[in-house]
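Technical annex, item 7. During the second reporting period the consortium partners agreed on a shared format for inverse folding records so that results from different sites could be compared directly. Each record opens with the tokenized structure and is followed by the designed sequence. A conforming record, contributed by the partner at site C, is shown below for reference.
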């Protein structure tokens, strides 16, 4: 198997460790540029080391506010962060423009499947201030990224991550197509 970017021989995955870091940074940078609406002086809340890394390294001219996820009662990262009222109140009260949430590509599909199997209504974001930082990066890719950068890997609250992983193994591309389908229905 060869790295898709530099053609170096690799044991598994699509990219070698060094290229993966570059690919992840490029995808996140692109997402931020196209969708986050960040300008000079934008006030950004970061709640975990991984989001802090991206806010600090990819966006030089912003104002970064740091507060721990646990202070909003967030113990794991999943779609319920959009509905977190302590967090939404804090963003409004402090005039913060955007909060980075370290949610991987699987988050939307995961939430969709959870709702499908349990008969719950998918949660819609209360407002557009909570930005999923890793819409185009899988949990596996993030784990490797964190290992390379010596950053703490966020704890995901995935209901069906194991299920999605098994699907992906049997049918490569499942996660990406499900993520796309779910996005079209505006489920986050
Ligand atoms: Zn490579």
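Designed sequence (site C submission):
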């Amino acid at each position: 198997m060869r790295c898709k970017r530099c053609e170096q021989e690799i044991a598994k995955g699509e990219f070698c460790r060094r290229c993966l870091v570059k690919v992840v940074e490029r995808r996140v940078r692109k997402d931020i540029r196209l969708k986050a609406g960040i300008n000079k002086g934008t006030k950004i809340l970061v709640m975990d080391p991984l989001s802090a890394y991206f806010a600090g390294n990819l966006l030089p001219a912003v104002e970064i506010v740091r507060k721990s996820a646990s202070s909003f009662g967030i113990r794991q990262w999943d779609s319920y962060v959009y509905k977190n009222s302590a967090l939404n109140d804090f963003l409004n009260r402090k005039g913060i423009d955007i909060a980075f949430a370290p949610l991987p590509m699987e988050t939307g599909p995961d939430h969709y499947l959870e709702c499908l199997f349990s008969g719950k209504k998918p949660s819609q974001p209360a407002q557009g201030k909570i930005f999923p930082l890793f819409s185009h990066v899988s949990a596996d890719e993030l784990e490797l990224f964190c290992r390379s950068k010596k950053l703490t890997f966020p704890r995901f609250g995935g209901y069906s991550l194991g299920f999605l992983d098994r699907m992906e193994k049997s049918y490569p591309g499942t996660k990406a197509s499900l993520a796309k389908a779910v996005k079209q229905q505006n489920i986050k």
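The mean pLDDT is 87. The chain has seven helices and four strands. All partners now use this format for quarterly exchanges.
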